[in-house]
Write a structure and sequence with these properties.
Layout (H helix, E strand, L loop, with lengths): L2 H5 L6 E3 L7 H8 L6 E5 L2 E2 L12 E2 L14 E5 L2 H21 L19 H14 L7 H16 L2 H8 L4 H23 L5 H6 L2
Antiparallel strand pairs: 1-2, 2-5, 3-4
Helix pairs in contact: 5-6, 5-7
């Protein structure tokens, strides 16, 4: 997900699986044996570039979309990670209580964000992401890098152009081709590793 999309998720944007909101994406996930816990349905994102005078909750259409919502302006993202789903459940339960206490209608659930948009700026988010990579002893990457890595792995696992484009929110063949190219490059590197005569499993075992 893009930063504005992720930080702007609200109580009204997440739906359990096996609902009519799934459409084709639910069938494709089942076809490729990808278990999912729920769906994030995005119709807009926070506008980080033009916040002056508009408040921290000003929303704009998704990238490359002309308007908010509608069939062409909606993106559906499956939640497939158990750890992520558990963390989101805590946030959902917390905001659900706030919504019920407010006595507002169900249609007002989108007013309750899962994350504090006044505190979690793009700068704060990037600092925390950098720290997470450091603590994990992993090369530091940006949120944009992580998004494109997910797209490459998703295509590599499913070989489904339609599913990948739908989840990633791309309509352009040119942009989608990047994921295909990265996956093919990874496959070549893996094959070259196994073709190397010096490769030995016993040496790998001995290194532990």
């Amino acid at each position: 997900m893009r930063l504005g999309e992720a930080v702007g998720i609200s109580l009204g944007d997440i739906f359990p699986k096996h609902t009519t909101i799934e459409g084709d994406i639910g069938l494709w996930l089942k076809q490729h044996n990808i278990d999912h816990k729920a769906f994030i349905v995005l119709q807009s994102q926070l506008d980080y570039k033009n916040q002056e005078g508009k408040g921290k909750t000003h929303r704009v259409p998704l990238k490359s979309k002309k308007k908010i919502g509608g069939k062409s302006g909606t993106r559906i993202i499956p939640i497939t990670c158990n750890k992520l789903w558990k963390k989101l459940l805590f946030r959902l339960a917390f905001e659900e209580k706030n919504w019920k206490d407010s006595k507002l209608r169900k249609s007002e659930r989108k007013r309750f964000f899962l994350f504090d948009t006044n505190k979690l700026s793009s700068s704060t988010f990037n600092k925390r992401l950098r720290r997470a990579f450091e603590l994990s002893n992993l090369p530091i990457r940006t949120a944009h890098d992580a998004r494109h890595s997910y797209g490459s792995f998703l295509y590599g696992r499913t070989q489904s152009k339609e599913l990948c484009k739908l989840v990633m929110g791309h309509s352009s063949e040119k942009v989608f081709s990047k994921y295909n190219h990265v996956h093919e490059m990874m496959e070549r590197e893996i094959r070259s590793g196994f073709e190397d005569d010096t490769f030995c499993w016993s040496e790998c075992l001995a290194s532990f």
